[in-house]
Design a protein that fits this description.
The chain is an all-alpha fold and 57 residues long. The chain is 58% helix and 0% strand. The protein has 4 helices and no strands. The protein is rod-shaped, with a radius of gyration of 22 Å.
Length: 57
């Protein structure tokens, strides 16, 4: 990797590693949770009916 950086005259080092993307992924957890719940519905309409019955404001 160092040789490729030198060949392209790049000076900035890009962090790569197992846990480097955790902050971005953890911020999306509520969205992912909602997406998983919505997978149980057959159509957007059935999900909307379910939510309308339970969460009447």
């Amino acid at each position: 990797m160092g040789a490729a950086f030198r060949d392209l005259n790049l000076t900035a080092y890009h962090e790569t590693g197992q846990y480097k993307n955790d902050r971005a992924e953890n911020s999306h957890q509520p969205v992912r949770r909602r997406e998983r719940k919505m997978l149980g519905f057959k159509s957007p309409g059935s999900a909307q009916r379910f939510l309308a019955i339970r969460f009447v404001v």
